[in-house]
Write a structure and sequence with these properties.
Chitinase, Seminal Fluid Protein  PDC-109 (Domain B), three-stranded antiparallel sheet, TIM Barrel, 2 domains, globular, 17 strands, CBM_sf_5/12, 12 helices, hydrolase, about 400 residues, GH, GH18_Chitinase, alpha/beta
Length: about 400
């Protein structure tokens, strides 16, 4: 997906690696039955993305207990960084010798859940780029399906791969082969979102699917990192994407919605857009009322509150940069799947605004005032100190390299 989705270091945490072999034995034993049965497609459609080896992986059992979530979208399978046509996690960890991700899957299945695996993502080298044709690309992905007994797979087709015509032909062809060779396999295709639904490369990908006669369970767009502002902009893009699906495949609006999915980004996006819990609820209402096929987000690694909650106006791969209770956003996936999330404490409130200083003992910041090094002001419930001369630079909006030093809450 987008830049934060490319933070693939390829190394599991020490605890996860240490637990790998033990959990793998128990997990595969329990997972063999659960994996064979799988979950209903609605759960695979609701599975949020999770990086199991990087970005401070959260405890999947804790998420399941707190939210009722049953399905996880594990990311990302790529080609080896050194070249070749064999599947790896993040370009560095071969699937063939993996025990760490297998342990995570075993733990999830032991609690009655299951996983889908996402291939591709933003950045990195994709198997469709390295493998010589659709058949060899499919053979590489079949290794992943077989090893983890998968009932679902996601093709995340975006930059830079979706600009490569041959690579997209390989990926779409591989998806079609896997669909044929694995009866009942849930297949989603995810691509970039734009205001008019998806961009030129996304439309070319859809045309390739039409040419090859391939129809997945859904085509999903990611309406973020493209100048989106809240739910209204996202639902507008989904409406426009529906029209794109209609015109490409000759579907009715209802049929197009039944093959359409949403993949959001919780909290602050890479480009500084903000998507709150209220935005997720609004898009969820749109998705369910229009009979859409998928509702997911990037990512569970980010579905927890930063310290401070706004993360000083920056985007993180391990927290959302908005006030929230842990796993707030996962609960919208649970609702889409048709389940009722367990009760939890209400989300945290943002710091109170203090236009007149509030409980701070220093003067409130003013856009027209001139400040010099050492001057202190109050703004949005925090106390700030100027590092150098400034005027009309709002505290908290320019990150750690800005003029204002955050001295904490008042």
């Amino acid at each position: 997906m987008k830049p934060l989705r490319a933070l693939l270091c390829g190394a599991a945490s020490a605890a996860l690696a240490a637990a790998g072999l033990t959990a793998l034995v128990a997990g595969q034993a329990s997972g063999a039955t659960t994996g064979a049965a799988g979950l209903g497609s609605r759960w695979y459609a609701a599975a949020p993305y999770l990086m199991p080896l990087d970005n401070n992986p959260p405890d999947t059992s804790a998420i399941m207990d707190a939210t009722g979530l049953k399905a996880f979208q594990l990311a990302f399978v790529l080609a080896p960084n050194g070249g070749g046509c064999s599947p790896t996690w993040g370009g560095t960890a071969p699937v063939s010798s993996d025990t760490a991700v297998a342990a995570v899957i075993g733990s999830i299945r032991a609690k009655g859940g299951d996983v889908s695996v996402s291939v591709g993502g933003y950045g990195g080298t994709k198997l469709g780029q390295n493998c010589s044709d659709a058949a060899s690309t499919a053979a590489a992905y079949q290794q992943v399906i077989t090893k983890y007994q998968l009932k679902a797979i996601d093709f995340d087709l975006e930059e830079p791969e979706y600009e490569n015509t041959a690579a997209i032909s390989h990926e779409i062809g591989a998806a079609k082969i896997l669909q044929q060779n694995n009866p009942g396999l849930y297949v989603s295709v995810t691509t970039a979102g734009t205001a008019d639904g998806t961009g030129w490369f996304g439309k070319q990908m859809l045309n390739e699917a039409k040419t090859q006669g391939f129809v997945p369970d859904n085509f999903s767009i990611m309406p973020f990192d493209g100048g989106f502002s809240g739910a209204a902009a996202q639902t507008s893009a989904l409406t426009n994407f529906n029209s794109v699906l209609q015109s490409t495949f000759g579907w009715s609006a209802a049929t197009a919605y039944a093959h359409e999915g949403f993949s959001g980004m919780n909290g602050r996006s890479d480009s500084g857009e903000y998507f709150s819990q209220a935005d997720f609820q609004a898009v969820l209402d749109y998705a369910t009322s229009h009979g859409m096929a998928r509702f997911t987000f990037w990512s569970l690694n980010r579905d927890r509150q930063c310290t401070p909650p706004d993360n000083n106006g920056t985007t993180s791969g391990v927290c959302s940069s908005v006030p929230q209770a842990a796993w707030d956003f996962a609960k919208y996936s649970v609702k889409f799947a048709g389940a009722t999330p367990p009760d939890s404490p209400p989300p945290s409130s943002p710091p109170p605004s203090s236009p007149g200083g509030g409980t701070c003992t220093v003067t409130a910041w003013s856009s027209g005032a001139v400040y010099t090094q050492g001057n202190e002001v109050s703004h949005n419930g925090h106390k700030w100190k100027a590092k150098w001369w400034t005027q009309n630079e709002e505290p908290g909006t320019t990150g750690e390299w800005g003029v204002w030093q955050d001295e904490g809450t008042c």
